[in-house]
């Protein structure tokens, strides 16, 4: 009787495995896109990727992580193409030589947000002054702490304000933007967020935009194709197909429209082909 | 509180409306976790039986390893499997990362130690005289083992339930090796995490409730089998 059960089990496993195996066979062309949590949490990729797959035949496997990890995946050849927003780290990475072309895709901006009561009094101030005030008041600040593009922008703001954050008021989640916003909301703390993720989640948060609009808060996304120098299995044709597609007019139009219906304002500004220096970086 | 009720309403709506995305997530969850459990049983039954009955060097170490493995963090298993399946890793040529197969491998690795440990414990519970009797009756070792497994079938089914429960509810490995790709590797746990990070709490709770329902359904079936056998025994 035991043998019979084992035979049945073996048959079930074979059948199920065959089922699993058939999936990749149906989709021979698939590329790996390493990108940031903001493009996934805001829902932008859900809008873009099905269109890309329909038009190009490439399935896209998205790994949504912090920009630091996305770049690391690219460096190891574990991803074919990157969509990231950490310009300083990107430039260093491209200079290493394993990456191919890097092109401007879009931007939005970072906003400093916090509780309505605004204990540190940063409403309407510049980002540098806001950071100084938060540190001066030792008001709770919730950091991503995950080497993401947002995190490196935050570190950049602290150093421009001449502050080394630390102590019990400075809390690091090590998680994505959505989670970090939630923690900040629960702790009535300040945090730095990209505008897109904040807007898509505003209804569930007790947080308001308190400081915005200065040029230091620009959030710029680039697409980077990887090359065989990063790894033998990098699919350069897929990388090129995706990068060419996302900077072309139809995708740029989709990006410009995304969020307009729901939030009354677009979440990203398409920038392909623009001169980077004119963005105010 | 309204989030909880919203979640309940969402769960009912997703199930009744035949929402294609949700049903494919449910189907994949079942397929991956049941396959992983079945593999764990195939590997774990003989291994656990060997640990319980046979005497060989390293037996206690193997048992201790299995007992440790019962509490193995899925994230750690996921990390190991990810590194193995990386393009630059030893199994990179198979292109398995971010596929359901990769999830089955990781969940199988999580479930196997559970089966080994519980099978070993179950068989060691059986009265030692039972085996002596079997040998005295002239049973071959294989027949004796089969009878032994039959004797311990109730705790064995409990082992299957524990293994399934562990893998269907884990999120760390599924996220890491599967990547939570929409329509390809998104299962109920990773879908719930994503919905949470998007601030869609009702949807997240709906996925959670459906997960509970599935776990209950599978365990109910196994319990019914188990208890029927308990009565007929």
From TrEMBL, chain A:
Pfam families, alphabetized: PBP_like_2
Database matches in SUPFAM superfamilies: Periplasmic binding protein-like II (SSF53850)
Signal peptide: 1-25
Record keyword Magnesium present: no
Top-level taxon: Bacteria
Keywords: Signal
Domain PBP: 24-248
UniProt keyword Manganese, yes or no: no
PROSITE patterns: PROKAR_LIPOPROTEIN
Protein name, per record: Tungsten ABC transporter substrate-binding protein
Automatic annotation (TrEMBL), chain B:
Principal subcellular localisation of the protein: membrane
Keyword Nucleus: no
Membrane topology type: Multi-pass membrane protein
Native source species: Nonomuraea aridisoli
Cellular component, GO, one term: plasma membrane
Protein name: Tungstate transporter permease
Gene3D superfamilies: MetI-like (1.10.3720.10)
Gene Ontology terms describing biological process: transmembrane transport
Keyword Cytoplasm in record: no
Transmembrane parts of this sequence: 23-54, 61-86, 98-123, 144-168, 203-225
Domain ABC transmembrane type-1: 26-222
Localization per Swiss-Prot or TrEMBL: Cell membrane; Membrane
Database matches in InterPro entries: ABC_perm_TupB-like, MetI-like, MetI-like_sf
